[in-house]
Amino acid sequence: MRWAMAWSRIVGHEAVVERLRQALERGRLPHACLFVGPDGIGKELCALELAKAAQCPNGRQDACDRCPTCQQVEHGNHPDVAFIRRADGTGRGERRAAIGIDQVRDGIQDPIALKPFGGRYKVFVVAEAERMTEEAQNCLLKTLEEPPPHSLLILLACRLEPFVDTVVSRCQIVRFRPLTAAQVERLLVAGHGVEAGLAGALARVAEGSPGRALRYQAGGAYDAARWLLDQLAGMPPGAEFAIAAELLDKARGGGGGAQEDAREWLRPVLDLLGLAWRDLYVRAAGHSEALLTWGASSEALDRLAERVSAATARRLAALVVEARDGLEANANVKLLLEAMLLETGALLGACAAAPREPVAAVR
After folding, report:
1. Same domain for 240 and 331
2. 297 to each of 157, 229, 292, 302, how far by Cα in Å?
3. Do 20 and 158 belong to one domain?
4. d(C-alpha 267, C-alpha 273), whole Å
5. Same domain, 113 and 225
């Protein structure tokens, strides 16, 4: 199946692309689409390409990627294409927790009623649409119930549960599935110049999300998680506070010093640590090695696997979930890390005193 260059940037979602191209060709593009799938797998890129194809004067299915219209959409300055994101709530670049009714009213409801300035459609793309408050969704509902002609609203979300039923029922649901590890690896190498060995490791822990893999690399989360695993594998008694302090220093450095930025930096590190403990459980319980995410990319994890039981691995993973929840609840970051690492140290110390019986893994 051969597509124009614009659509060919989208990897792993061939059925979705063909569905949208057919809708464009037949002139049956819905007024509202709800793109649903994990974060970082290409929903926003697909929305961008759909906006270009809908506006491009040189084709019905595909954007030519050469005309001024395509270039304007690509660079975010087309007068009839708008991306709505959570607003700056502090003046320091920190985003508000939700998309409020004011953003929906001023950014969508009022301008969508106007005729297109120069394009064929008025296109509005809402990132993290599941973060809209119920008030904001009810405001948007008025537009969904009586959509203006030549309007296209694209909601991007990871889950459907936060939406009110009436919003979901008035949108055409388009589901995006995680990519394979091989697809993610190829994208990282060919599209972003990531070294092949690192790309393979990132692809495994990214769980089908190229965007997540790139964030793990660019933000330093992957290197930090490897460092943390190395520290934990050889941690002497009483070192928990020092490791917590160094991790917090890394978070403050990686996050630019602000408390909220440090929390943001820690989230993917904890996610990767949770995946490591999941791998330990898979190994200890004798499940197939095909289920491993870290694979052979951490020698420290290999050393820990020799002594950690399935029950301990479950508790280690639960500690990470508790810490992650604490971040979301604005708990004190220093105390949160110290509490997690103190119990982690106690669990790993007990395992060192009584190594587990080896279990044959299913290959």
Report:
1. yes
2. 31, 11, 11, 9
3. yes
4. 10
5. no
How far apart are alpha carbons 309 and 361 in whole angstroms?
A: 14
Query: At residue 282, what is the residue type?
Result: V
Within-domain flag for 134: yes
Check whether residue 164 and residue 311 sit in a common domain.
no
Is residue 150 located within the same domain as residue 242?
A: no
The rounded distance, in Å, linking the Cα atoms of 121 and 82 is: 11
The first and second tokens of residue 91, run together, are: 């003046």
Q: Which CATH number covers residue 96?
A: 3.40.50.300
* pLDDT tens-digit map of 318-359: 999 999 999 988 899 999 999 999 999 999 988 866 555 555
Domain count, the chain: 2
For 2, 35, 234, 242, the CA distances from 348, given in Å and listed in that order, are 53, 42, 10, 17
Torsional sign, CA 323, 328, 330, 333: positive
- Quick one: 149 and 68 in the same domain? yes
The answer to whether the Cα torsion of 168, 26, 113, 85 is positive or negative is positive
Question: d(Cα 258, Cα 329) in Å, to the nearest integer?
Answer: 17
Give domain status of residue 318, yes or no: yes
What CA–CA distance (Å, rounded) separates 65 from 4?
9
* Cβ atoms < 10 Å from Cβ of 38: 19
Could you give the CA distance from residue 180 to residue 246 in angstroms, rounded to a whole number? Answer: 35
Q: Is residue 283 part of a domain?
A: yes
- Structural domain for 295, as ranges: 219-353
Q: pLDDT tier at 92 (50, 70, 90 boundaries)?
A: low
Q: Is residue 189 part of a domain?
A: no
More reliable by pLDDT, 259 or 195: 195
pTM of the model: 0.83
